[in-house]
Amino acid sequence: MRYLSFVLTLLMLLITISYLDTTNAAAASVTGQDMKLNIRHLIPSFPITKSEQFENAKQITQYDIENQQQQQASQLNLEFSFKGDSESNGYPPDVQIAIGPNHVVEIVNRKITIFDKNGNLLQQKTLYQFFNFPTSDNVGDPRIFFDIETQRFFAISSDFNAGIIKLAVSKTSDPTGDWYIYSLTNEQGRCTDYPILGMSSDKIAITSNIFDNCFISNPSYLWVRLWVLDKNQLINGYSTPSMYTTTYSDYFSIYPAKSLESTNTLYMVSTGSGDTSTVVYFVVNGNPSNNNVQISIYYLSIRYIASPLNAPQKGTAVPINTDDARVLDATWYQNKVWFTTHERCNPQNDFTQRDCIRLISINTTTNSIASDTTISVAQKYLFYPALSLDSNSNVIIVYGYSSSNDYASLNVTAVLSGQSNSWLSPVQLKAGESYETRNRYGDYFGASVDPVDRTKVWVAGEYMDNVNHWSTYIGRVSISSQPSPYVTMTLSYTVKSGSGYQPPTFSYYFNGIPYQTTLTTTPTTYLVDKGSQWSVTEILGGSTQNMRWITNNQTKGIANEPITIRYVYYQQYYVTFSFNVIGEGNYASPNVNFYQFGVKLSKVMPSSEWIDANTVLKIPLLLEGSDENQRWITPKTSFTINSSMTLNFIYYLQYRISINYKVMNDSTQSLDITLQYLYLGNKTEAKLPFIGFVDANSYLNITKELSISNVERWATNNQTSIIVDSSKVLNIAYWRQFLINIKLDTIGGGSISPKVAYSKFGILTNSTLPLQDWADFKSTLRYDNIVYSGDKERWITFDVQSLIVNSSISKTIRYYHQYYVTIKAEPQEGGSINLNSGWYNASSTINLQAVANEGWKFMYWSGAYNGNSPSISITVNGSITQIAVFYLSVTINNSENLIIEYKYDSKTGSIDQGSSVTLYLPKSTKLELNAKPGLFIYEFKRWTGSINVSDNPLKLQLEKPIVLKANSGINYLSIILLILVATLIIIISILFIFRRKR
C-alpha cells in the first residue's frame, strides 16, 4: 500500500458561532422536503496515519485468528425492541440513538424522532425543521448523545452546501421541549463531512473531515477540524460560548469519545481510513473558557488493521458498501477508551477473508493499549459496530451482518468486564427482509446506556424491510451478572534518571486482608481480591519541594481485571517560566514545549510545571501574530532542564526593514554605506543595501556623508536617523557634490547680497553671495550680474554669470558700484553735451562740456552743479542730474524813425532809432514788442525777418531763435493835417488881425 507522512500542523482559527432558539412542537408525522442529495462519505486518496505493509492474506489470517475466542454461552438479554424510522429517501440513514430518563431519541439523515420508553411516537421533525437548515441545502450526518451529568441531549448535523455544522442542546432532559441551536462556521464554503460528537464533564468536542467540495467526484482532502466548547456555557444558552479550534492535516477521521462518568479529560482516537498498525490517541485537557486547552498526542501500536471488503447480501449481486476502517464509535468509562472499527480477517474455521469487527481499548491512566480484540463470525460479513458500556463495564456492541445467504440483519454481542479477549454469542435484534442496490448502507449505528438503569443499554441499526427501502430497529439489552474472582496484578518499576530515591510500595487486599510490599525492577505477580482497592506509591521518597520522582501510571484503582504495569518513574524539576515582550502589538502568548512523563506537552506562558530531568525545554522562535513584516523574536529557544529554575524569556518586537541606495548624478560609482541598528538589543552594523529585521522603537542610523576630500563628498538629504515604528522600505539618494566657495568684492563701496542659484541634492537652491556650500556634480551655478538699489543705483559684475560644477569652485566675484547720472541739454535743440546720461562708477569724476547750437547760447548748469561755465568736472557720489540750460537768441533791428519798447516776464526795455538788440531768452518765453515813430510824420509799417507781420504791438511765444526788423514810413495823413491846421491857423490869424483892424 502507498503511504505518506505529513508534518502535524496546528492552526488556530477564529470562528463565528451563531445562536438561536427553537420552539416546542407537538408530535406529528414528517412531511418536509426530501433530501436533495445522498452524500457518500469521502475518503482521502492516501493513508493518513502510520501504517505497515502486509505481505499476503495468509499473514493477516494467522495474525488475527489468535485473538478470536468466541464465548459459547451468551448472557445477553434482549428485553424489548420496536421498529424505528422507515423510508426510501435520505439513504443511508446514519442511525443514532440517545436515551434520556423518559425518552428514546432516534436521529437519521432525514429526521429526528422521539419515542417514550415503550416505543410510542411522541414527536417527529425533519432535520430542516429541527436545526433550522435552509430547505434548499443538502444536510445530514447527524449524531446525538444524552449526557448523564448535565441531563441534556446534544445533537449535531452538517449542511454540506454551506459548510456549516449545527449543534443542538436541549434546555432540559425532555427532548420534546426547547433546544439551543449553535452554528460552527469555520469551514464555510468547504465540505464538512462525517462530523462526530464527543464530550467530557466540562467540554464537548466536535470533529469533521474537511474536503474542498462535497459535490465533485474527486474532492481534495484538506484536514480534520476540531472544535472544543465549554459545556456549561452551552447548556446555559450562551450566545457566544468559549471555543478552541484547530486543524490536523496529517490525520483523518478523529473520533472524540463519549464519557460515561465524570472526567475533565476528553479523549479522541483515530485509525485513519485503515491499513495501519497505529492508533493515534489524543488527550485533551483544559477548557476554552480558561484559554488553557492542551492536547497531547500518542502513537500506540496495535495489530495490523486491513481495510474491509464490501459485504455480499442475499437477493442481489450488488454488495453492501462497508466504507473503510475508520473508527466507528468510541466511549470512555472507568479509565478506558473503547472503540470499534472494521477490518478484513479470516474468521475461525473460515478460510475466506471477510469483514470483521475490531474492538480496542486504551488504558487512559497509563496511555497504553489495554486490549485488542477481533470479533468475527464464520461465513458472515460484519459491519458498522456501535458500542456502549453498562455500569459493570461490560461492552455492548450492536452491528450489522450479511452474506450471500443473509439479508442485511442486526445482531448484538458483548465483551464482559475483565474478559476483553472473548465475546458473547450474539443475539439477533432484527432479521433483514430485503436488499439494497444503491451501494449505500450505514454509515454508522448507535448504542446508548440507559441513564436511569445503567445495567441496560439501548441499541439501534439499519435493515431493509423492502427493496431499497431502509428501516431501523431499536432494542434494549442487558447482561446477567457473574461472580467476581481474584485478579492478578503483575507489577515492577524503573527509574529514568537520578539517585537517592526510595523504591515504591504496593498496597492491596488478599482474602480481605491488607498487604503492603516494596516493588522491584523485576516483574512480580500478586493475587488481589477482585473489586478491592489497591494503590502504588506515586511520588518516591527522596523527592523534595522542587525535585521529585513521579509516575503517571495508574497508582490506585479497583481490581476488576488482570493488570500488568511496569511503573516508570521520571525525575522531574519544578520550573517556572514566563515571558516579557519588548514592544507592543497583537501577539499571542507563546507556548512552552517540554517533556512530562516522556510525553511532549505544550502550555501557554506564564506557568509553572514539573518537567522531566535532562530534557530540553523549547519555546517558539517567533510569537504567533508575527508575519513577513513584523515579528516578536527571542534570542534563545531551548534550555536543558537539569535543576529547578525560573526562566523568563524575552521577545523583541522587530519590523522588517528594506533599505537601498541610489547614486543620483554619477551612476558609475558604488558606495560603502553603513547602517547602524539594534538587533535583539545589541548594536549592529550592516552595509547597504539591507533587508532584515530591526528592533522596534530603536533608530536606524545611516551614513549621511561620505567624504572623498575636504572639497568633494557623497551626501544625502534623506532622513538618516529613523525611528523603527513600523515596517519600512527606504530608498536613500546619494549625490556627488563639490564645495563651492565664492567671495564678494564691491568696487565703489556699498553692501549687497547678489542672488545665486545652484543645485543641491537635486533641488534648485537660492542663496546670496558670498557663498560657501556644497553643489551637485555636473549642475550649473548662476548668480546675478546686476544688483539694483532702486532704479538709480546698482552694482554690476562683468564676470561669467554661470559655472558648471565639475570640480570644487573657489573664486571672487567683483561688483562695481554705479549710479545713474542724467545729463541733458535744455532745451534739447539749444545745444549739446559731450557725455550722455548713463551709469557711472561711484566716486568717479566726469568732465562735461556744454556747446550751444547756432542761435542759442549756453546760459548755466542746473542740477548737482550750478554755474555758468560751459566746462565742468563732477564727482559721482550718488544718482545725479546735470542740465545744461540754453537760451535762444532774439535779434531786433530798429529803423531810424522808430523807438521799440519790449517786455518779457517782468522785464522791459527799449531800442533806440537805428539800433539793434539781441536778447537771450528761455524757450517759450512770451515777448511783447511795440514799435513807436520817432516823429509824427513817421509811422510803423511792419515786422520783417523771421516773422513778416504788421501786428503792433507784436506778441510772441519764443520757440526758436528769431531775427526781426521794425520798418517805418512817412505818415502822409499827419502831414496833410498839419498843413490844414497851419492853413487854418493862418486864416484865423488873418481874420483876427483883420477884425482888430476894424
Describe what you observe in this structure.
The radius of gyration is 62 Å and the shape is elongated. The protein contains 4 helices and 78 strands. Strand 19 and strand 20 form a beta hairpin. The longest helix has 26 residues, at 972-997. The chain has 998 residues and is mostly beta strands.
- Count of distinct strands: 78
As for the CATH topology of the largest domain, it is: Methylamine Dehydrogenase, Chain H
Mean pLDDT: 89
Number of helices in the DSSP assignment: 4
| Sheet/helix structural class | mainly beta
Which regions are unreliable across 5 or more consecutive residues at pLDDT < 50?
Answer: 1-40, 45-73
Q: What percent of residues adopt helix (DSSP H or I)?
A: under 10%
Distance, first to last CA:
201 Å
CATH-defined architecture of the largest domain: 7 Propeller
Large-scale geometry: elongated
- Quaternary structure of the protein: single chain
| Radius of gyration, whole Å | 62 Å
CATH superfamily of the largest domain: YVTN repeat-like/Quinoprotein amine dehydrogenase
